[in-house]
Write a structure and sequence with these properties.
Blueprint: E1 5-15, E2 18-22, H1 31-34, E3 43-44, E4 50-54, E5 59-68, E6 81-89, E7 94-97, E8 103-106, E9 111-120, H2 122-128, E10 130-131, E11 139-146, E12 153-156, H3 160-169, H4 176-183, H5 190-196, H6 198-204, H7 208-225, H8 235-243, H9 254-257, H10 260-265, H11 285-295, H12 301-316, H13 321-331
Parallel strand pairs: 5-10, 5-11
Antiparallel strand pairs: 1-5, 2-4, 2-7, 3-4, 6-9, 6-12, 7-8, 9-11
Helix pairs in contact: 7-11, 7-12, 11-12
């Protein structure tokens, strides 16, 4: 058998422990869709024409190779983490990218393939977190060959790092209705995923009533984090949330409540990009807390709980988001099941 055609062999920068391979530059896979229904949590392939790849290292250089084989290759013992998925590429090339937008062309022809995602040194990269050195700690291989579509499978698992991603991203067989509903969600789930990815799938499986209960609970936590839960101006809306009934106008509309911090508290709201604190400037927590309240009125209950939770995480800030998660699981222990 002839040797593989090496399509890419580079040191690439990862950010937040992930890389994306897509058939189109406009396609950005999401973890929620890419891993839907999968057993493995390292290589998400459920989103058409794309792969969502997890790495051990969170930030810095990793070694990355893509090989095209004419048939299934032998598996080298050097690879300690190995999973397989199926991929259909509708274009004549694919693009490997990090979330910062750095890109590398992978000249994979159009076709239906089996993909073996392999890792070496994943735990070392995980333990290091950030690699500022010019030499990679962990290395990855995508071995690709023509094959009919088949379910994903975990072939080797040896590290706690891989086990973590399999637990967080790999949910096993998915409920088709839940997966389809998740695809319709408008909320950007990145903030929730950064806090705890498993919470997304747990909430997706819950009923509409649970979504509403969690949304109202987190909105109250946002008001507390902002220090305005006891404000006389919010007495009625707090009572609505505590009784578990829809909030009254104007607090049921996000556009309207955007101006409420200035009117009620004499402050001008600040909205940093993606909810992150910008240099020398903090977001006004009152604004995020009131948007969390308005989110409880979103017609789709799943979108409502995701949006309310996102705003509440931001209102708590990076130093206290973990405390919020702990309290959430105490209030709704079944979300950890």
């Amino acid at each position: 058998m002839a040797g593989p055609n090496v399509l890419l062999d580079k040191q690439v920068d990862v950010s937040r422990g992930q890389l994306h391979l897509a058939s189109d530059e406009s396609l950005w896979p999401t973890a929620e869709l890419a891993f839907a229904g999968q057993h493995n949590g390292l290589c998400g392939a459920a989103q058409a024409g794309a792969l969502y790849l997890m790495t051990g290292l969170r930030q810095g250089l990793v070694g990355f190779t893509v090989e095209l084989h004419d048939r299934e290759p032998a598996l080298d013992d050097k690879w300690t983490e190995v999973v397989e998925v199926s991929l259909t590429n509708p274009s004549e090339q694919m693009i490997l990218r990090n979330i910062e937008g750095d890109a590398w062309i992978v000249p994979l022809p159009a076709g239906v393939y089996r993909v073996r995602y392999c890792a070496a040194g994943m735990q070392a990269g995980w333990d290091l977190e950030t690699n500022d050195a010019p030499t990679p700690i962990d290395c990855y291989l995508l071995a690709v060959w023509p094959a009919a579509p088949a379910d994903d499978v975990i072939i080797r698992r040896s590290s706690e790092a891989a086990a973590y991603w399999h637990r967080e991203n790999g949910d096993g067989p998915a409920d088709e209705a839940s997966t389809g509903r998740l695809a319709q969600i408008e909320t950007n789930l990145g903030v929730i995923r950064e806090l705890h990815a498993g919470l997304i799938s747990a909430l997706t499986r819950c009923s509409d009533d649970v979504h509403r209960s969690v949304a109202r609970w987190v909105a109250l936590q946002a008001l507390s984090a902002a220090g305005i839960r006891d404000s006389s101006a919010l007495r009625d809306v707090v009572a609505d949330l505590e009784r578990g009934v829809p909030v009254s106008p104007p607090f049921d509309d996000e556009i309207t409540v955007m101006g409420e911090p200035a009117r009620l508290f004499g402050q001008t709201p600040v909205q940093p990009v993606a909810g992150l604190y910008t240099e020398g400037q903090l977001p006004v927590r009152e604004w995020y807390a009131l948007v969390a309240v308005s989110a409880t009125a979103i017609p789709d209950s799943l979108d409502a709980v995701f949006y309310a939770l996102t705003q509440t995480i931001i209102a708590h800030g990076p130093d206290h988001a973990g405390d919020l998660l702990e309290c959430l699981y105490k209030a709704f222990p079944h979300l950890q099941d």
